Amino acid sequence: MPGRTRIRLVEAADAAPIAAHRARDVELFRRWEPAGPPALLTAEGQAERIDRLLAGHRAGTVWPGVVLADGEVVGQVTVGGVLPQPHLRRGSLGYWIAGTAQNRGHAGRAVGLALRVMAEELGLHRVEASTNLENLPSQRVLRRNGFSPYGVAHSAILLDGRWQDSLLWERILGD
Q1: Which residues contact 131 (CB under 8 A, 6 or more apart)?
Q2: For a surface tag, which of 40, 48, 122, 162 has the fewest beta carbons within 10 Å of its beta carbon?
Q3: What is the pLDDT of residues 22-55, one digit of tens each?
């Protein structure tokens, strides 16, 4: 039985476990995520990143969360680009799960919990996400959480040294 999945706002103490996962999983994520500065593979670099994310949270532009399985950090879920204006009310969802915790349903449950945060806490109406065209596991997570694909952004992201297309996803959260 998979461990219980929760999400919560990221904290300074999460820097070390996030850095450990990211350092171990560099090759695993190379196909799906842009290369970051080497400092992000250290607790110090992640602490600085977390400080910036929490500043964005205080400004109302981001909701940076961690994914927990049985109380241990196993990934992140982030709502970025938050536009809370009454005529927009949308955000963009991103997430990752550590290699040691994948294929246990954590991503799907974390996305479902993040949708609840977006609707109930942030008051958002629309959520967007994107995946690499070949990232079928992430596409399944989004589909299972009610997202629909709506287009392709050509040459949208530099991954592993080449520009690649992204599949764009959307979900309406309700009024």
Answers
A1: 138, 139, 142, 166, 167, 169
A2: 162
A3: 999 988 888 888 888 888 899 999 999 999 999 9
Determine the angle formed by the axes of helices 43-59 and 15-24, rounding to 10 degrees. Answer: 120
Complete DSSP assignment for 101-152: GTTSSHHHHHHHHHHHIIIIIS--SEEEEEEETT-HHHHHHHHHTT-EEEEE
If you count them, how many residues does the chain have?
A: 175
Q: What pTM did the predictor assign? A: 0.92
Burial-class residue 135 by CB neighbours within 10 Å (0-12, 13-18, 19+): middle
Measured CA to CA, the distance from residue 163 to residue 161 in angstroms comes to 7
Question: For residue 141, with 0-12 CB atoms within 10 Å meaning exposed, 13-18 middle and 19 or more buried, which class applies?
Answer: buried
Burial status of residue 83 (CB atoms within 10 A of its CB: 0-12, 13-18, 19 or more): middle
Two structure tokens written together for 130 = 């994107």
pLDDT of residue 1: 37
What is the amino acid identity at position 12? A
Q: How far apart are CA 2 and CA 81, in angstroms?
A: 31
Which of 128, 132, 171, 127 has its CA nearest to residue 152?
A: 132
Q: Strands 148-159 and 72-83, how do they pair? A: unpaired
Tens digits of per-residue pLDDT, 91-121? 999 999 999 999 999 999 999 999 999 999 9
